[in-house]
Design goal:
InterPro entries: Transpos_ISL3. This is Transposase. This protein has 143 residues and is α+β, with helices and mostly antiparallel strands. It is built from 3 helices and 6 strands, in the order ββββββααα. α1 crosses α3 and α2 crosses α3.
């Protein structure tokens, strides 16, 4: 779950563009180490700070929208490695939500340039290109 502070929504300038910003924290107690798989009862897992991620969300009120999410870092005393709390909104090591990737693929069905799609969704043209190539096998006709 994501917990939100009292001032959870602000409008700020990001990269020179007025944007809607949400702020939240993702923290929970882990039962197993993500790297070695040891149980929390046999090997001590401790909270080891947080990492701030700026996650791109779909536009609201025609403004780019971002979620600034503080993810909890954990340290495993058994294998001496760290790992970060995950969320189902984004893929691992990615900062663009799955919803936006699906929207890019849906807009790619129509005759539109990649630059126009990127401008409408506030992402780069490279991201649009990757999303279209990722989803293109599903849109090919099966003769």
């Amino acid at each position: 779950t994501i917990s939100f502070p009292k001032t959870w929504c602000l409008t700020q300038l990001i990269k020179g563009v007025l944007s809607t910003c949400y702020f939240g924290t993702r923290s929970y107690t882990h039962s197993r180490c993500a790297n070695c798989g040891f149980n929390n009862k046999t090997v001590k897992l401790i909270k080891h700070g947080t990492k701030l991620s700026r996650i791109t969300l779909p536009k609201t009120n025609n403004l780019p929208t971002y979620l600034f999410l503080k993810k909890q870092c954990f340290l495993c005393k058994g294998c001496k490695t760290t790992f970060i709390a995950s969320t189902s909104m984004v893929k691992r090591n990615c900062f663009i939500t799955k919803c936006i990737i699906q929207t890019l693929a849906a807009e790619g069905q129509f005759i539109t340039s990649e630059k126009d799609i990127a401008f409408r969704q506030s992402v780069s043209t490279t991201t649009v290109n990757r999303a279209l190539h990722q989803w293109s096998p599903q849109f090919k006709p099966n003769y």
